[in-house]
# Entry
Amino acid sequence: MKRSRRQFLKVASLSVAGLGAQLAAGGMTKAAAAVKPSYKEDALALKAKRWAMVIDTREFTSKEDFDACINACNTAHNIPHIPGKTEIKWIWKDAYEHTFTDTTNKYQSKEIEDREYFMLCNHCENPPCVRVCPTQATYKLESGIVAMDYHRCIGCRFCMAGCPFGARSFNFTDPRPYIKEVNPKFPTRMIGVVEKCNFCVERLDAGKLPACVEAAQGKIHFGDLSDPESEVRKLLEENFTLRRKPSLGTEPGVFYII
Amino acid sequence: MLEKVLKGSPKYYMWLAFLGGLIGVGAITYLFQLKYGLSLTGMSRNVTWGFYIAQFTYLVGIAASAVMLVLPAYFHGYKQFKKIIIFGEFMAIGAVIMCMLFIVVDMGMPQRMLNVMLHPTFNSVMFYDMMVLIGYLCLNAIIGWKTLECERFQVVPPQWVKYLIYTSVIWAFSIHTVTAFLSQGLPGRHYWLTAVLAARFLASAFCAGPALLLLLLMIVKRIAKFEIGKEAIKTLTIIITYAMCLNVFLFLCEVFTSFYSNIPGHMHPLHYLFAGTEQGLPWVTYWMWIGAVMAIGSLVLLIPTSLRENMKILPWALGMLVLATWIDKGLGLIIGGFAPSPFETWASYAPTVPELLISLGIFAVGAFVVSILWKIAIDVKKEAGTL
Ligand code: SF4
Ligand code: SF4
# Structure
């Protein structure tokens, strides 16, 4: 199921036209103006066939390294700070055995075991969350990004049961009181919908790299996985990397240099 | 026939008023949930479905079980069931209505419910689930109503009803299969990711549903003073016994596969449910063991013919069976699915008081609907002399 913004606008304009025709038939001439929406991409927009992320876990040594990225994401996306089991998180860190649950070895290098690792939505190539969503509120963009329409989500949380990576959060309560400082450039969410990392699609459209990538200052790499010349492909060739739960066949787009 | 609803004894009205009260409590609690969100429930980031979805799953089974009366009667011409089929169909209507309500109260954004139909998504099992449930509700309502009407005027039901009945048989299997497919196809949820889940669902439905029906009929026959028919009870309990044996067998298959393969992910949920974790026993473990004992107990009382046909023992056996299947599906299934989190940590869950009150309200809605429908059926049948 691929659905581009353009397709969406086409459908939208058709429905507007349909509505206009209906209203016009009812004698309301004012509504007859069915505008043909024009959509122009930002000339600066970064483009890829398959966005992917390579995290150099060797470089993340201090709490500050992690916090810089997490805070950058939280501020960029108005992520509320809700303590406890109903928390909302897009990118967070955890221990090795919680991140790579099926790649744990006994007597492993202490250094690797003691490191902490980022977790976020993998923007899977075969995303179960998209497969199960009954309203197409979760959908895949042509760039490989798994995106969400918060205004269509019915909050059934089927996608959360479907995602094997625990990448999704649900707004159990109204998130707005929990946002310290609202960033007017990004929408806040309402109660009762699911949300997750969006690979900063809004920044890519404006020609900027994801907030966490920018804040990581070279420790996280971002690029086009389908382009053999890209930086991420070079890194994958030169380094040993892991992905989370590859055996499930979702084809995660987040790689970890170990 | 609707006028029958209005003429009843004071006891009948008191019962309805009592249910009305419970519905009121549930509805008011639900208003709070609408305002404060699902934070009022025990669900969390790692346990995203709870008591509501579990009840939904169980009740789809109860709804589907009407087929255990319809199938012998219409496919094999077994006449003894004809008298009580209508009760099964009307119970199915109550069950489907409860299912729908449980889905609605579980939604974060119920006001957007119609998005499922406005943006039909054929790759989502939930879309099909919604469709088959609505279809099943309509089928049972039309079939039940029409056959009862024909009984009242003592005419043979028209031919088209028969075709609808045949459709409803297949439909019943499909609603519970689709419900199993909701969870059966999710990668990474080991407790559900098993091909026998749908079969398990059907087996447990086909014993629990008729057992519940028989129990309720035994109560109602005392109040309304009618006979269910010895033969019908005999045959139905045999069906219940076989289905329960199959249910237990399929569960044991799961246990074997998990533990003989020794794959940790497959053992974790069962381990959590029956033996707890390093941190101790979760509350559900006690329930699971009660369920296991009840399941075995019910079989002990149902398998030997002499015990099964003893009308003093039968209600106990049926009660134990209903409790056992409910614990398995109405508690264990969802908790076992979520307890090992995607991070291989243990995620605990317990329903909260608001969650239980809302659920109670929904159960009361079901009881209300079934009470009214059964009242109509009993009155019509009594008048027609077919009870
Ligand atoms: S990580 Fe989870 S939420 Fe993200 S695309 Fe994959 S399945 Fe969907
Ligand atoms: S919670 Fe929202 S995004 Fe997730 S499956 Fe349901 S409708 Fe889709």
